[in-house]
Specification:
The chain is α+β, with helices and mostly antiparallel strands and 817 residues long. It contains 16 helices and 50 strands. Bound molecules: 2-acetamido-2-deoxy-beta-D-glucopyranose (6 copies). One 2-acetamido-2-deoxy-beta-D-glucopyranose is lined by residues 87, 105-107. Residues 342-423 form the Apple domain.
């Protein structure tokens, strides 16, 4: 989350502040006989908002608007005369005796009016602390009637307390319209509104064309905004009753400054003001990525951002025009492979989806999923159904009529969608069972065969990943949850890989990985790959190899390294995307490379690793603990995005299981949490500990292992703790980093210290870490870190099976239990 400092806004601030008179006693109200001239302003009672005249970078156009009073970057949230700017600074705002707000030019002609004329008797205009400009009639008894409010006529900003939506009785609609450009507040081409057709959904339009769809409301969030989660900053909801449909949000902490805006490029953003940085920070954005582009993959085409290309047909469908499809023109979408026969059709469940366009849908809040299916089955033009509300296991019924469009797969918080399919596709219901791996069988002699089975199973691209049968006949037993998923990996021919790697030549060798050497290669089509080879004599390696295949093939996230395929002939190989910038380890601890790692890159890496780890811990369908997070296992792509690699030691957890004991402690000592190194107890919090160490290393450019300081004998963690307690944390920053954002540096160190606390319970979860890194909120004080003083393991521990990795040793130690 980067600070958005709009230079224009700064400009604008300076341009206008010279015009805004510094009236000492700021009023928030004007009455019939008062007016405001250009140069004067109203300030809301709490000092939050200001109403006055401003211009953008074009000084000859003056506007009446409302902006944040407390925010040092001029940020306009509402404009009255969007299309009719004043030509000079001689405008006047007054309240007519009839109760209209009017803006007059130098000649006294009306250039804008609120048109709120009524039979008001004693009208006043008041700027409220919510940013709402109201015209009300105050009668003798002190009670008042609201005649008009600016909240009913939003411009490009939705403030807390505003409604976006429609009155179903009167048809009155409130929506956001972008500015035409950054210096022209007149209405631009983009609107953000609630589409009331079918089941209401939130959309962004350019003119009359839908650009993005946030999706229908599922009781918790918009279906297409998986990251929108209940949070301590603001509450939000979409209200739907007989009278009204509207979205609104309320700030939970009045000191928190946040707004939702559609900018002149049609991007919807929620930004929050970070006092300490004196800047706006991005909190959420629409579109998130290319897959949010409306109907990108056409009817029955599904978009998956981690796939390349992103579009493919849902299982059971095939491109309508395969030639177009092959040249990446997906607009005509997909068609069924087997025709429907209404009476006999079945419904197949697709999981992890953003619900499709609901503009031609029908809904019923009280029906359950079974009733929903019955209704859909009966009507031959009903193509899909789902639950309306996901809360409490799901309720309500949503039916789609006609072609299903704008589907994407989500990594987290996706929903189930049941699509009508021909009865002949009934094997789709059971495909999961067919692909089930017998991996619950304990690892032993057969393990290599099993690994082979994985790879051989389907030698084509992953296709049925999201498909699940409805009658789920799930297996029980130890960790089967983690292992029963189907796996389909492309198979590479040994010859191809040998050519690509120059016959596994020494020059192509990148180093030694968890279970054998790693080579660089270039495929015939120019794609660069990294190839891991299982060394013949490595029993340990075989185990890790299995782990790696098991986990990484199932995980898809931009902060995890991607497995492209495998090869099992005379050699057992895993083929990955190649990471041109090598590992974090090689960049961070190399004197020359280190200089090139600027602060923003480092902060990007810190955030990226956190997101990857969050995905492992909670967002992926499995709960995975990496157990060997270290700088050597973070690879960097072209753009220096971090990718977590090496799942050789990873462990999968089932359901609510949160920690486990192990006799085999694997990992890298200087990143290991105390409870894991000493007691062999590991949990997600052990990864959090390693992450904290990694952050400290990234900030300082120094290894935890072997860290030496003249003043004390602590390791890097201990050093960080010392500096923190003495309020000298900035000294931790790598002296080779020239320009930096001090707030980000301090925050990273603070968060890292929270992560390396002695007790696992005290350490934050990765989702908390991400929030803390991206917000300005005060952080809890860290307690003493674990292992900050120690330099060696307690003597009763013995190491076995050291496995070499290029720079630091990943070790397995047996602890006597
Ligand atoms: C406005 O001014 C007129 C004349 O000065 C006066 O008669 C009237 O009472 C005033 N109205 C208010 C609301 O103060
Ligand atoms: C005011 O009136 C004069 C004369 O009618 C005209 O030239 C001028 O353009 C007008 N100014 C504005 C701001 O409308
Ligand atoms: C007020 O009414 C006038 C005349 O009907 C119209 O031109 C103007 O756009 C209206 N103003 C607003 C703010 O709706
Ligand atoms: C708005 O849309 C019109 C017509 O679609 C187009 O000509 C114009 O360039 C667009 N303006 C902006 C600012 O995108
Ligand atoms: C919704 O479903 C319930 C239960 O089946 C039914 O009683 C009700 O009439 C339905 N409402 C509408 C609007 O169809
Ligand atoms: C199926 O549903 C559509 C949309 O609600 C409706 O127009 C049509 O009449 C229904 N057909 C039957 C056979 O019920």
């Amino acid at each position: 989350m980067r600070t958005i400092l709009s230079f224009f806004m700064i400009l604008l601030f300076y341009a206008s502040s010279s015009y805004v008179a510094q009236i000492s006693e700021a009023l928030d109200t004007i009455t019939v006989n008062q007016s405001i001239q250009d140069g004067e302003s109203l300030v809301s009672a709490g000092g939050t908002f200001e109403l006055g005249f401003f211009s953008t970078s074009v000084p000859s156009r003056r506007y009446l608007g409302i902006w944040y009073k407390k925010v040092t970057i001029m940020t306009v949230v509402w404009v009255a005369n969007r299309v009719t700017p004043l030509a000079d600074s001689l405008g006047t705002l007054k309240v007519t005796s009839l109760g209209s707000l009017v803006l007059l030019n130098a000649n006294g002609s009306e250039i804008w009016s609120s048109n709120s004329s009524t039979d008001a008797r004693n009208p006043v205009a008041q700027l409220l602390d919510s940013g709402n400009l109201v015209v009300k009639d105050v009668d003798g008894t002190g009670s008042s009637i609201l005649w008009w409010q600016s909240f009913d006529y939003p411009t490009d900003t939705l403030l807390a307390g505003m409604k976006m939506g429609r009155n179903r009785k009167t048809g009155f609609e409130r929506y956001l319209t972008s500015w035409k450009s950054i210096d022209d507040p007149s209405p631009g081409n983009f609107t953000h509104k609630i589409d009331p057709n079918g089941f209401p959904q939130s959309i962004v339009k350019q003119g009359s064309v839908v650009k993005f769809r946030l999706g229908p409301w599922n009781g918790v969030r918009y279906s297409g905004m998986p990251n929108l989660d209940p949070n301590p900053y603001y509450s939000y909801e979409l209200l739907l009753d007989d009278d009204e449909i509207y979205y609104h949000y309320e700030l939970l902490d009045s000191s928190f400054i946040s707004r939702l805006v559609i900018n002149s490029n049609g991007i919807v953003q929620r930004v929050t003001w970070i006092d300490r940085m004196q800047g706006w920070t991005l909190y959420l954005t629409i579109p998130k990525d290319n897959c949010d582009t409306y109907a990108l993959c056409g009817a029955y085409g599904s978009c998956t951002i981690d796939e390349s290309p992103v579009c493919r047909c849902l299982t059971g469908f095939t491109p309508r025009y395969s030639q177009e499809w092959d040249i990446l023109d997906w607009s005509n979408g997909c068609v069924r492979t087997a025709p429907l026969d209404c009476g006999k059709d079945i419904f197949v469940k697709y999981s992890g989806m953003k619900l499709p366009d609901t503009s031609s849908s029908w809904f019923n809040k009280s029906m359950n999923l079974q009733e929903c299916e019955e209704v859909c089955k009966k009507n031959c033009s009903c193509m899909a159904y789902s639950n309306l509300d996901i809360r409490g296991g799901g309720s309500g019924c949503l039916l789609w009529f006609g072609e299903i469009i704008d589907i994407r797969e989500l990594n987290i918080n996706g929903q189930d969608l049941y699509i009508r399919m021909a009865a002949s596709e009934s094997d789709l219901l059971h495909s999961k069972q067919k692909l089930l791996m017998g991996l619950a069988v304990s690892f032993g002699v057969f393990s290599l065969c099993l690994v082979l089975t994985f790879c051989i199973l389907k030698n084509k691209r992953k296709k049925k990943k999201h498909l699940e049968g409805k009658d789920d006949g799930s297996e029980s037993g130890d960790n089967s949850e983690c292992q029963k998923e189907d796996l389909e990996l492309p198979v590479f021919d040994l010859g191809t890989v040998a050519i690509a790697t120059n016959n596994f030549s020494e020059e192509n060798k990148l180093g030694e990985g968890g279970f054998g050497p790693v080579y660089k290669g270039v495929l015939e089509d120019g794609q660069e790959i990294a190839v891991k080879k299982l060394s013949n004599d490595s029993r340990q390696g075989l185990h890790e190899f299995k782990n790696e295949v098991l986990y990484i093939a199932k995980l898809q996230h931009r902060n995890l390294v991607k497995l492209l395929g495998c090869c099992i002939q005379e050699e057992v190989l895993l083929i990955y995307e190649f990471m041109p910038n090598n590992s974090l380890d090689s960049c961070l601890f190399d004197q020359n490379q280190r200089k090139l790692l600027g602060w923003s890159t480092r902060f990007g890496i810190i955030n990226g690793i956190a997101r990857g780890l969050l995905y492992l811990h909670q967002d992926s369908r499995l709960r995975i603990i990496h157990r060997d997070l270290k700088a050597g296992n973070i690879l960097l792509d072209n753009a220096m995005n971090p990718k977590i690699s090496d799942f050789g030691s990873a462990k999968c957890f089932v359901g609510d299981e949160t920690e486990a004991n192990t006799i085999r402690v694997v990992g890298t000592y200087s990143y290991m949490s105390p409870e894991y190194a000493i007691d062999g107890v590991f949990s997600v919090k052990s990864d959090v500990f390693s992450y904290g160490v990694l952050v400290l290393e990234t900030v300082s450019g120094k290894r935890n292992r072997g860290f030496r300081h003249p003043d004390h004998c602590h390791n890097l963690v201990g050093h960080a703790w010392r500096l923190f307690t003495e309020d000298r944390s900035m000294e931790q920053l790598d002296e080779l980093v020239e320009s930096y954002n001090a707030a980000e540096v301090l925050r990273s160190i603070h968060v890292a210290l929270l992560c390396v606390q002695q007790c696992p319970e005290d350490r934050p979860s990765m989702s908390a870490v991400i929030l803390m890194l991206g917000s300005a909120d005060e952080l809890p004080l860290p307690k003493e870190p674990g292992f900050y003083n120690e330099r060696k393991l307690p003597p009763e521990h013995t190491f076995s099976h050291p496995v070499h990795s290029p720079n630091e040793i990943t070790m397995t130690l047996l602890s006597p239990r």
